[in-house]
Amino acid sequence: MTVIDLRLAPMAAVTNAPFRLVARECGAGRLTSEELDARAVLHGDDKTLDLARFLPEERPISLQLLGNDPDVLAEAARRLEATGADGIDLNMGCPVAKIVSKGQGAALMRDSLGAAVVFRTLRKAVQGAFTIKIRGGWDEHTINAPEIARLAEAEGVDGITVHPRTRAQQYTGQAPWDVIASVVDAVAIPVTGNGDVRSLADAHAMRAHTGCAAVMIGRGALGRPWIFRGVDVDRDERRRIIRRHLDLIDAHLSPRVALVQLKKHLAWYAVERPGMAQLRQRLFEARDAAEVLDLFWSLW
Ligand SMILES: Cc1cc2nc3c(=O)[nH]c(=O)nc-3n(C[C@H](O)[C@H](O)[C@H](O)COP(=O)(O)O)c2cc1C
Fold first, then answer.
1. What atom of ligand 1 comes closest to residue 133's alpha carbon?
2. CB neighbourhood size of 206 (10 A)
3. 217 CA → ligand 1 middle, Å
4. Whose alpha carbon is nearest atom 5 of ligand 1?
5. Are 177 and 195 in contact (CB under 8 A)?
6. How far, in Å, CA of 60 to CA of 225, rounded?
7. Dihedral (CA of 94, 29, 13, 280) sign
8. What pLDDT, in 10s, does the model give residues 18-31?
9. Ligand 1 centroid to residue 207 C-alpha, Å
10. How many Å apart are CA 148 and CA 137, to the nearest integer?
11. Spacing, Cα 11 to ligand 1 middle (Å)
12. Phi, psi of 84 (to 5 degrees)
């Protein structure tokens, strides 16, 4: 089988530096931060600046911006690039009501004129790779991913990730991979396919079906970062990878954030183990890291 460029999808409150680095160490290609509110970057919001931090070993990494004001986005991009990021990714897919009601995320796909101005302004501001992450369209009547992709290419965007569900679909139903193929046909710049890839076989199937240059995996990597290895990984090696992830959480996150992340990720790691149903509740009720770890390793 040929080697595939597998990438970790940005996931808010999940794909922080420790998890991204574990994915990279398992073989993930270019990384992307979770969405960062451009205005909050400009205001120097502590929580946002924390989320924008990455470890040197994560490079190459792109930081993803959420916004719709071209000048705010451009200034946020400049500041983030000044921290050493290798590129800027524009979020055009977030379906959350309070985001799209501000004209951001997936709402950018409804306004091709506005999107073109954002592309042009950001292109001038970004020195490194400037990429976008889009959906199929707003709803089933307005599937315009190929049109947005052509516009982006004409404005100098370097690459496009396509999660082909519409905003109306949110995360329901099956991701229609045909839409990814239609974007691949529409542009010459690299297209990364995304949506419902849960195994290496799925990744190969997506590439065969769409002709995409890379495959991005989100939920299929939760509790299974070894998916980026591209080969089967035995139990001992999985245990080693989990321990490495736990060490990174401990080393790089504040104690409060670390406890939340520990519970979340260990619950995902435990999914494939028998007895998970009872463990989950107890994990989330545990009061400190030691209790969480005892519970987890008693099962794993
Ligand atoms: C919890 C969660 C958070 C997400 N946060 C982001 C985000 O910050 N930026 C983004 O572009 N996409 C985000 N997504 C979408 C994913 O990147 C991806 O496009 C989607 O989950 C489909 O891929 P999958 O089927 O491999 O999970 C998020 C998805 C989930 C489940």
1. 11
2. 24
3. 9
4. 11
5. yes
6. 18
7. positive
8. 999 999 999 999 99
9. 19
10. 9
11. 5
12. 105, 5
